[in-house]
Design brief:
Blueprint (H helix, E strand, L loop, with lengths): L3 H39 L9 E4 L4 E2 L2 E2 L1 H15 L6 E4 L10 H10 L8 E4 L5 H14 L5 E6 L4 H10 L3 E6 L6 H17 L1 H7 L2
Parallel strand pairs: 1-4, 1-6, 4-5, 6-7
Antiparallel strand pairs: 2-3
Helix pairs in contact: 1-6, 2-3, 5-6, 6-7
Length: 209
């Protein structure tokens, strides 16, 4: 027969086990909801008239856009040709050893396709989405252009990019490329979005350094 102390210890262990299980189930439920939101937003094209079209950066090879960046630039060019905005913003810095930035690669690509230089803003500050969008918001404000933007990136990026944009003061919609999103990309975005919502996307961006 258990002593009083032994009985209390058993009850405490049961309580802790139930509490831990509850936390795990709540966390998994929350992550499942965020995953669904990420997936749902990846399938939406919210293109509409705005102040600027913002191309989120991706890899470039010595000034030549990678296929991922090229797909984003082509989407932005399509929106520009449809008259949804007179301004395209190219973003993205460069990796150590690179001669050119992602933003510069975007600039040259668009110039070669007859977009006038006066219609392109180049924002090289920022090594991640938060920093790039924060710098973009500052440039748009400084130039008096307005804060309504279409973000162009891969589909899986939609939800987190829009929430980051709101945090830095942009009113954002999203228009995805035609590239498909893998399950691992959706999972990664689920984690990134969840962390950003809990601690703020500025702090979350610092964690990825």
């Amino acid at each position: 027969m258990l002593s009083t102390n032994g009985y209390r210890l058993v009850q405490l262990r049961k309580f802790l086990a139930i509490a831990l299980l509850s936390v795990i189930l709540l966390t998994l439920s929350y992550l499942l909801i965020v995953f669904f939101q990420v997936w749902l937003n990846s399938a939406r094209d919210q293109a509409r008239p705005v102040d600027a079209i913002v191309v989120l950066g991706a890899a470039q090879w010595d000034g030549v856009p990678s296929p991922v960046l090229e797909a984003r630039l082509e989407k932005a060019l399509q929106l520009y040709d449809e008259g949804l905005s007179p301004i395209i913003v190219t973003t993205g810095s460069k990796q150590i050893g690179d001669r050119f930035t992602e933003a510069y690669a975007g600039l040259t690509y668009l110039l070669e396709r007859s977009v006038p230089e006066s219609s392109i803003l180049v924002v090289v500050d920022g090594s991640n989405t938060f920093e790039s969008l924060s710098a973009t918001a500052n440039v748009l404000t400084d130039r008096g252009i307005g804060n309504k933007v279409i973000l162009v990136s891969d589909p899986y990026h939609a939800l987190r990019a829009k929430e980051i944009a709101r945090e830095v003061g942009l009113q954002a919609w999203f228009s995805p490329t035609d590239l498909s999103s893998s399950f691992s990309q959706l999972i990664r975005e689920t984690a990134g979005t969840s962390v950003g919502r809990m601690i703020g996307f500025r702090k979350a961006s610092n964690l990825s350094r």
